[in-house]
Every structure is written in structure tokens, then in C-alpha cells.
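Here is one chain, start to finish.
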Amino acid sequence: MKPCPCGSGRLYAECCEPAILGFTLPPTAEALMRSRYSAYAEHAITYIIDTCSKNSSAAIDIKQTKDWSEQSRWIGLKILSCTKGGLGDTEGVVEFEATYERDGLRDIHHEQARFKKYEGRWLYEEGTIVPKTIVRSVPKVGRNEPCPCGSGKKYKHCCGTAAGS
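Its structure:
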């Protein structure tokens, strides 16, 4: 009995697995988002495609989606906000962060995902990636400044050449 990858605190067999196997339909946009994350973690690519609207499924690169799913170690899902997407709604937006590791690098996929309900079934419509600002941990060294390695050379003639400057 393994915990559900979506982070709900429930067992996978009682949470997202029934939806992924086609036994149930997620009742809300957030539930669909959680099941889609679990599908990535469980490499259930067919479910990911089947839970997209016709507009978004046509744009999916199946091989790329499969590779991302299988070559990543899925670490966790964090739901940041939900706007509508409840039982009585027909549209909803779920903002989330999906943390994963690939090729030894840890990353966070931050997205605002739009969902629509078609004939009583929630589907992923489209998503907008939320850009992240990268903050340097140390000040940037100028090309003509002394190299921080202590060689006495200008940065551009020392370590700056190895960095591709």
C-alpha cells in the first residue's frame, strides 16, 4: 500500500489510481490536477492525453511527454491556489508547483492550469508557465575585474574564459 504521489495523504489505490484506471472521474479541477500529477509519476501517459481537451491534446508531443514522465523522479505536488473548479462549476484554474528531478537536477514546474468541464467531465484546457526569477548567490564578476580565484589576472583572461565569457 503506497501513498498517493499527489500528496493528499491518502493511499494511491484510494486516491488517484481509480481515476487513472478509468473507474472514476475526478469531481473537481483540483482532483483532476492531482490525478494528472500522479499519472506523470506513475508514467500513465494515456491518462494524461485522455484528460486533455481536444484543443490541447492535439498539441501534445507524446514522445516528449513520455520521456519527461519516465526520465524524471517526481518529488511532490504543491497546490498553490484554486479559482472555481468545484462541483457546480464548469471552469477552473489551479496554480501548482510540481517538483521533480531529472539528470541529477532538481526543478519546479510552476503552472497556472485552466480546466473546463465537458459533459460532466473535467479536462485540462491549457496552462501558463509561471516564470521564476533567478537570484545570484554571489555578485557577478565583471570581465575586466580581478579574477576572484586570486591569480591577479583579469577575470576574462582567467576563469572567465572557462565560463565562456
